[in-house]
Amino acid sequence: MDASSLRISKFDGTNFHAWKFKMQMVLEERDLWEVVSGEIKAEQCETQLDQATYKRKSRKAMAVICLAMEDSQPPLVRSASGACDAWSRLEDHFEKKSLANKLFLRRRFFTTMMEEGDDVLEHINKLKTLAEQLEAVGAPVCEDDLVITLLGSLSDSYQFLITALESRSDTLSWELVTSRLLHEEMKRKEQGSKGDEASQGQAFITRDNQRKGRPVKKSWPCHNCGKIGHWMAECPSRIQENTERHRPQRAQDSGDRYRSQRANVAQEEDSGDYLFLIGETTSAKSSDIWLVDSGATQHMTCSKKFMRNYKGFDAVDVHLADDGIVQAIGSGDIVMSMKTPQGMKKGVLTNVWHIPKLSRNLFSVGRFTKDVGPVTFTKDGCYGEAKGTKWKIGAREGKGLFKLQMTPVAPEQANAAKSSGCQGGTKSYLWHLRLGHIGHDGLNCIVTKNIGIGIDISSVKKWDVCEGCALGKQTRVRFQSNTTARTSKLLEVIHSDVCGPMSMATFSGKRYFVTFIDDKSRYCVVYLLKSKSEVAAKFMEYAAMAETQTGKRVKYLQSDNGGEYKSDKLARFCAERGIQQRFTPPYTPQLNGVAERMNRTLVECARCMMELMNFRLLGPSAKRKVNIYL
């Protein structure tokens, strides 16, 4: 019997839960599971024939189990008395019911999140597998917790489905939730949606013909042409006008775009006052009219001239109510001036989407509610609330629309306001702003040497601290190399870091190396790697070697936030051995200075030796030999 006949992957020490289930199916197929599971025991066999049959099945099951394992795993069961004993040893080793293992699995279960674009079925199976592993170690998860964790781990693009499920009066079972999620994913795939669903907002403005309890349209005139028999949204003249204004450009294949977004924009105006500091908006023409949109998930604007920090991006389709298509091409920030009970105030709309062909600016109630506070609609208008303060956002207009009145502040006006407020409006400071925040000495040189043309100042006066310069020209303060006390015991803290890829590989194709440094002795061990994914295996090898040589146990592994140190394999090994991982904050290599400095020392040593001995004249082979020797 060979391993290939089993038709399952050999067990390499990882993902025991999946291998265990497949192995059980193989043993069931061969009528050997009753011996392995302990349903039939040797002492229950009374006749010699039964005893011989039991021993034969036990030996056969033992062979099947061992042949389905990698070469590194059979030592765990080599001394087992039979198949049942071997199976129990594997369960005790890989499904330990220790507190550390339960904590590790629970942390993974409750922190598993679904990223945008991930497959829903894979995410569901991942959570279900973790729940089964928890049950195997004696920490079962109830169905309610399983459902809650699944809904809470979904990406932002599924928030509408989550809201719909939460509104159900009946109990949410695991089967119901998973079937709805799979059905939703199937519909999205059928629609040909691609791209990041989180970056795609759908903007809906409630139309009169979508409301419940509306009268029969045959008895009411159209508000656009005055004829009876259709609503304004169905008016032929209005549809023709909008079609000509929003004629779509379909030069680009829709399959390569982001998922289409819908903005059902009612052609009415709205007036009101509001106060806020929120993010994500979009727009259409250079009109200053903003409509309060109770269904939009994004804010939209048409004018680029009022934007600051503008960034362009690949065109995103936005579908209008008349089935026309417009495109968002960028985003930025807009400073808005508005009237509040405390007087005129300014608010900032951040990450505002720029849609040049949109006919009205949209103010999203949903985005405002998420970022600022609740919105209340009354007969005369709508009101926002935040931090105990309530103010009017929009005034009710005809046909159920709410118009928002606020004044966009141009970037130069905002800077001028700052200059007049902070610097007394001096001309020197004004020219400092006009010339790209030039320094005092540079501006003085231009004026005294009469280099510039049209600069209407005779002398440069000192100005106070410029806010823009203070924020834009600041540099990071040099990191203070405070001497910290070393640990008092060997292997208490192990520093580690990966270096590479190198410009030239070794004979065996290795371009990386990883270092493990003991904090007390500074003893360093280096392993060459083909890829970063080998870090977990090398740390296991290092820990076994170091603990055997010193008689001590590794307590802490300190590294950066690299993905190679956050793999499931390494995390599981550390949890089983009681080793705590300590990660430095992102973009702060100085906090992992021991390992970083050792990497630099090793690289400089190799480079200096090669340069001094002119190894570069010998070609790549000589350099590879030096790298191997080091």
Automatic annotation (TrEMBL):
GO molecular function terms noted in the UniProt entry: nucleic acid binding; peptidase activity; zinc ion binding
Entries under InterPro entries matching the protein: GAG-pre-integrase_dom, Integrase_cat-core, PolX-like_BBD, Retrotran_Ty1/copia-like, RNaseH-like_sf, RNaseH_sf, Znf_CCHC, Znf_CCHC_sf
Q: Where is this region: Disordered?
A: 187-218, 240-266
Q: Compositional bias (Basic and acidic residues) at which positions? A: 187-197
Q: Which SUPFAM superfamilies match?
A: Retrovirus zinc finger-like domains, Ribonuclease H-like
Domain CCHC-type: residue ranges: 222-237
What processes in GO biological process is this protein linked to? DNA integration; proteolysis
- Keywords on record: Hydrolase, Metal-binding, Protease, Zinc, Zinc-finger
Question: What Pfam families does the database record attribute to this sequence?
Answer: gag_pre-integrs (PF13976), Pol_BBD (PF22936), Retrotran_gag_2 (PF14223), rve (PF00665), zf-CCHC (PF00098)
Which parts of the sequence belong to the Integrase catalytic domain? 485-630
In Swiss-Prot or TrEMBL terms, this protein is called: Uncharacterized protein
